[in-house]
Amino acid sequence: MTKPLNYNKWKKIEVSDDEDDTHPNIDTPSLFRWRHQARVERREQRLEEQKEHETKHKQLIDRRKQLNEKLKKLENEKGDVSSLKSEREALEKEEREWKAKDDEMQKQERIRPLDVDDLTHEGKSKTSINKKVTEERPQNMTEEEQAEYYKKFLDKHRDNVKKYGMFRNYDDTQRFLEDHLELVCEETANYLVVWCIDLEMEEKHSLMEHVSHQTMIMQFILELSKSLKIDPRQCVRPFFQRMKTADEQYKQGFVDELTAFRERVQTRAKQKVADALQQYEEEERQKRLGPGGLDPVEVMESLPKELQECFESRDVSQLQAVLSKMPRDEAAQHLDRCIKSGLWVPNAKDAEGDGEEEDEEGAEGAGEASSEEKVTQGVEKLQVDQ
Fold first, then answer.
1. Claim: this prediction has a pTM higher than 0.85
2. To the nearest 5 percent, what fractions of the chain are helix, strand and coil?
3. What are the b/e assignments for 359-368, b being 16+ CB within 10 Å?
């Protein structure tokens, strides 16, 4: 059975500013001020007496402790304990007097009328330290300033952005964002989009689908802030409340946007792969270009089959024979393209060094020119005639 409340302490309340039974000839405000001042003075006197009483108690405890230590020391040394008899009796007398005064003070406290300071007192206190204010995103930035801000943001928060992208349920995501409100911004959404495309290009499809879900959460929070015209950080809790409740239309809209986003990521990833492959092929083609700016692979594929076999077999005499059977203009055109692509180098022996050429001239004298030289001379003649 519940014990009934004791209302006896509310029978006598001393309050000086709520009485209206004063005499008409008495200045009521002055009377209230006098009563209030008297009450305050009595309270201060009572608190001072309580303070002195507590101080006296602490002193008695210290003296009792010291006396016990002296008695213990004398007992260990087998000294005369009676020498401390008078000190012990005096201490016991003071302790009895303090106890009697303490009982009397407690009795007076129980029967003392309550005042306003007794009725209103602090029940409990709490100290809270505000979290560090998140950095505000600058407004109206130029493209260069946006790029610089994006770089600084990633240098500072890249690890936390990636950690956010790896969460798997709404509760963990909400707690993490509420602890890191600085991540609720456009820069986080942009980085997540780029990350999704990179994962798709690396053929990490399941991981891309996971990160894309977190990307869509961030984009929905940003869109919610735009529609409500409030700071995105204030939309974290409202978004998750919507997703956790039975708002099926909102959930279906989220799923539809997520599906469309994944399709865009896949399309963009395929395009980037194709662009990268095309760029690589172009770079390789530039490396192959001959002195005249033509691609030897393309020139080789455009030559007649007989000329292709000559270059593949490196048979100069066969090349000379094939060219001699062609019309002059056609042969000159093919050889000109071969020279510009680097398939054929006129006077190739001159490039081998003067010393080697002089040795060959000394050995062979004024003999007939080799078949390669004849072809070169024939090319030059064809070009001149043309």
1. no
2. 75, 0, 25
3. eeeeeeeeee
